[in-house]
Design brief:
This protein has 344 residues and is α/β, with parallel strands linked by helices. 36% of the residues lie in helices and 20% in strands. It has helices spanning 10-19, 25-36, 50-59, 132-146, 165-176, 196-205, 220-226, 235-249, 267-277, 302-314, 335-343, and strands spanning 3-4, 60-61, 66-72, 79-84, 90-98, 101-105, 109-110, 128-129, 150-155, 188-192, 210-214, 253-259, 282-288, 319-321. Strands 3-4-5-6-9-10-11-12-13-14 form a ten-stranded mixed sheet, sandwiched between helices. Strand 10 (188-192), helix 6 and strand 11 form a beta-alpha-beta unit. Helix 1 (10-19) crosses helix 2 (25-36) and helix 4 (132-146) crosses helix 5 (165-176). The longest helix has 15 residues, at 132-146. 42% of the residues are buried. The chain binds S-adenosyl-L-homocysteine.
Length: 344
């Protein structure tokens, strides 16, 4: 069994290099090829001798994401990829263009175990975790294909990042490394459905990334209806963890709140949410629910969306309504992998 060299962090790679009896400067050289230039074969490492390339390829492989399908939105240039992995599994990524640069939304697992009722990612079942190198390869493949540099990363694609904690941490450290893509921690956002013990673990890493919580309800009764994870860690525990996180890291926490008609978009819900979040250093992202055919989600009316935002703002809670990007290319994650699995 060959080892995945791209899923090692800088220190781990260095240990391997030393163990192989190679000179120390090779670590930086090889690390740059893998992480800064995103090569997919050892033969592309042109400042390394043929013998060494052969030796490396006998011991290691380089994880990769092949473009299986690509969709470009005609409305806003959003690009969505369906990537094929070494074992024939698929994940999705979305590239969004903003005034300040390009943001990629990456997947962290093949499928998801969390079972949120409105989400497409669970429908095709959970297969496996992504390796750190596979998460990073989504950036390299997209950058090469579009000839761009990505400045921001959101872990909001398929999967629950805190359910693949170690690989996700390694990915964050590798994309942040100055010998790699050198993306600032401040430009990295991790979104979770609320795995409370892992929020505390993340807090103790003390990284200046942005934490986002998929809240979607103001109380346990409504949240448990759509998010099974809430039966394990209720809303009070989730918000307590966020408060601790803010205290320790001094970073503002974001809450995602998907508005579903008559489920969680009433005046009472907005009022209750305001009370829950009162006094917190936080921001609420209101998202009109995306239609996923089998899920039967019904979007809130414009009137309800604006009323919800106004109630929050009037109660001193920072809130914005998220602009929809890539609506013509099924840009919300999970949808392409599902279709592809039906064909298989
Ligand atoms: N598992 C993590 C990462 C996925 S992020 C998490 O739950 O946060 C993807 C975001 O899109 C989550 O906030 C999720 O709740 C939301 N989402 C999923 N399906 C959606 C849909 N049909 N419409 C709008 N948002 C959706």
């Amino acid at each position: 069994m060959k080892k995945d060299i791209k899923s090692l962090d800088f220190d781990e790679l260095h240990n391997e290099i030393v163990t192989l009896g190679l000179p120390k400067f090779r670590t930086k050289q090889i690390y740059e090829w893998l992480h800064k230039y995103g090569v997919s074969s050892f033969d592309e490492m042109t400042n390394i001798s043929k013998e060494l390339r052969k030796k490396l390829s006998d011991i290691y492989f380089i994880s990769n994401c092949e473009i299986e399908q690509k969709y470009v939105s005609k409305i806003d240039e959003t690009v969505k990829y369906l990537f094929r992995l070494y074992d024939g599994e698929y994940v999705e990524s979305v590239i969004m263009k903003y005034k300040y640069g390009y943001t990629i939304c990456v997947s962290s697992q093949v499928g998801c175990k969390m079972g949120c009722t409105f989400c497409a990612s669970t429908l095709a079942g959970f297969k496996r975790n992504l390796e750190a190198g596979e998460i990073e390869s989504q950036l390299h493949s997209a950058q090469k294909d579009l000839d761009i540099r990505i400045s921001n990363v959101v872990l909001m694609g398929i999967g629950e990042p805190l359910d693949n904690y170690e690989n996700v941490m390694k990915f964050i450290h590798n994309v942040n490394n100055e010998n790699g893509l050198n993306i600032s921690m401040r430009n990295i956002t991790l979104s979770t459905c609320g795995i409370v013990p892992k929020i505390y673990d993340l807090m103790n890493e003390d990284l200046p990334i942005t934490l986002t919580i998929s809240l979607h309800a103001p109380n346990d009764i409504i949240r448990s209806r759509t998010m099974p994870v809430n039966n394990k860690w209720g809303i009070t525990e989730v918000i307590k963890a966020c408060k601790e996180y803010i205290k320790k890291t001094n970073r503002r926490v974001s809450f995602e709140y998907t508005l579903i008609n008559n489920v969680n978009d009433t005046y009472e819900c907005a009022k209750e949410l305001s009370q829950r979040l009162s006094g917190m250093l936080c921001h609420v992202n209101l998202i009109p629910v995306n239609d996923v055919a089998e899920r039967g989600n019904v979007k809130s009316s414009e009137e309800n969306i604006h009323r919800f935002a106004d109630v929050l703002k009037n109660n001193g809670i920072n809130a914005t309504i998220r602009r929809t990007l890539g609506s013509d290319i099924n840009a919300s994650c999970g949808q392409l992998r599902r279709k592809r699995n039906e064909v298989k």
